[in-house]
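Hey there, shall we discuss this one?
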Amino acid sequence: MIKFEEQATQKLLDKNLITENQYQEITTYRGLNIFSLNAELKFFLYLSVLLFTSGIGVLIYKNIDSIGHIAILSILFVLICVCFYYCFKNSKGFQKAETVFEHPVLEYLVLAGNILTCIFIGYLQFQYEAFGTHYGLATLIPTIVSFSCAYYFDNKSVLAIAITGLAAYIGLSVTPQDLLKNINFYEDQTLSYSAIMLGVLLILWTVYSSRIQLKTHFNIIYLTFALHIISIAAISSLINYFEDIVWLFFVIALAGSSYYFYKISYEYKAISLYVFMIIYAYIGINIFIFRVLEFMDFRDLWIFIIIALPIYFIGSIILFIKLIKNFNKEIAA
């Protein structure tokens, strides 16, 4: 790593992008072997918020009969008020551009306050049915609160919660277990259409946000959710609904999504979008090939297929590595 940094600095000097004096200052600074604990401290802050909110949930679950519902709601409400009081007091207010708190701890207070608000509203609906039989409101209201907090306080973690809540409101479960098992999409094909529509709406929102310059640094989060939601919905339907003519719709949806995110990954120089786009496109291509082979009688070619499969997968791995290397070279140029 040190050798790589020295080579990179030398290239900057060779291209006259930095002066000899700047080169010496950089070399001297790196020689001090100073390293930052900023990322580690933020990770522990994030972990502490998750542990605290999880602890609140466990405490409620195990002592719900002894503590009492009113007491639990009161404690939650007080904690929420304390979190948001300090956040509003120290925030710079809403701004269209990217903003940060002067103290990073406040970012995690926003996250804690938002999660506690979701717990409070969910508990209120579960215990007292505050919204009656309109159970969707118990999801929609925390989602609206999360979007408001995300944009007002410029918090990406809260934005992720808001998008997850929006997906849950239309009936999508985005837990890793459900996504891997394709539970929702398999049971109800209409959810596949809803998922693709949601993904398209997220993409359109990024386009609109870019035009009005509204929190454009949020776009990568919207695009990441859109990529996963559209691709998983399309692939799930390609597997489960081959008999229907609408199968071609999901082929087109996956192909269009792959092409769009191929272009957008270069625009945002986002390696994460590029890697997952390749993976989803590769899965889709293999499903398509397998479905086509189902119509062919290749019993006499089974020896050739057995020989070709290892070559195919090895070639795929080599191509994948080559694509990643080319991407890194092009965005670094």
